[in-house]
Specification:
mainly alpha
């Protein structure tokens, strides 16, 4: 479960960033994905044993990807995908669900 916890953040972050990049910027995207996976917030939550918060944090990357996709081309599939990730985030952490609700209200 712990190994899965770190690899899901790395797996979700890099290809799901809603940025169209060239080969020159690919290193920046990879660096952002690594920072998304390993940062002080993750370290603190890992030591405190808040693994459900970390799973919800890992699901933020697909959430923002499908939110950007919804704004880019509104389709039923992107709405359902967004609702699925919101549901998954809500199952793992209500704190992160509040952050998602604020970001939805903000946009």
């Amino acid at each position: 479960m712990l190994v899965c916890l770190f690899f899901t953040r790395l797996l979700f972050a890099s290809p799901l960033l809603p940025i169209r990049t060239s080969n020159q910027l690919r290193g920046c995207v990879t660096g952002a994905a690594i920072f998304f996976a390993i940062n002080p917030f993750v370290y603190e939550r890992f030591l405190a044993g808040h693994w459900s918060h970390l799973f919800a944090y890992a699901f933020l990357a697909p959430f923002f990807y499908y939110l950007a996709q919804l704004f880019d081309a509104p389709k039923l599939r992107s709405v359902l995908s967004l609702a699925f990730w919101i549901l998954l985030i809500g199952i793992f952490s209500l704190h992160t669900l509040v952050m998602v609700a604020i970001s939805l209200g903000w946009s």
